[in-house]
Amino acid sequence: MSPGTGAALRLLAASVDAKAVAEIGTGCGVSGIHLLHGMRPDGVLTTVDPEPEHQQFARQAFRACGFASNRARFIPGRALEVLPRLADAGYDLVFCDGDRLEYLDYLAESLRLLRPGGLVVFEGIFANGRTVDSGPQPTEVLKLRELLRTVRESQELVPSLLPVGDGLLCAVKR
Ligand SMILES: C[S@@+](CC[C@H](N)C(=O)[O-])C[C@H]1O[C@@H](n2cnc3c(N)ncnc32)[C@H](O)[C@@H]1O
Predict the structure, then answer these.
(1) Keywords in UniProt for this one (predicted)?
(2) Mean pLDDT, rounded, for 57-79
């Protein structure tokens, strides 16, 4: 994750005064650290990843950064199995950085999870330039284009594609 993307995540979390954030794709915790910095001091990050090892790395990284263990809730599993168990309108921000093929499904879940005025954020939208390359592209890229169209045409969302890092698609739920 680029420093610019990290700074944008902090800003976005702070801009909605985030108390509850859901993250899809814990990885090694880089994005989680940025989100936690931007959230309220009592905010809780709920982060989902099917790889227990990744979550273990992230847990250690959060601790090394001085975040109390109760600032993060680690849920092991695939997003589309875990997200349906999370509370309706219970989140200020949903950050999507899991399986690009599932981004459209994450959008549908995010609309349910977000409170009005909450933000959904997708990482890696440029796919290293392939999203705007007119040559033949894999399904992953076609799906990213479909996501962009869906977000742009949604009456429920106010979107902006931030050209930081590999492209950060943000949208406010009305
Ligand atoms: C690009 S990495 C995330 C990086 C992380 N956000 C960071 O900044 O450190 C993608 C992560 O998504 C996880 N992932 C893959 N498929 C997933 C799924 N279906 N649901 C949730 N997470 C998934 C992978 O295990 C991997 O840790």
Answers:
(1) Methyltransferase, S-adenosyl-L-methionine, Transferase
(2) 98
Q: In what order do the strands lie in the sheet with 91-96?
A: 72-76, 44-49, 20-24, 91-96, 114-123, 168-173, 157-162
The model's pTM is 0.98
Q: Which atom of ligand 1 is nearest to the CA of 1?
A: 8
Tokens, residue 120: 């959904």
Tell me what pLDDT residue 112 has: 98
The pair of structure tokens assigned to 123 is 């990482």
Ligand 1 center to 97 CA (angstroms): 6
* Domains of the chain: residue spans and CATH: 3-168 (3.40.50.150)
| Ligand 1 site-directed mutation target among 2, 24, 26, most atoms within 8 Å of CB | 26
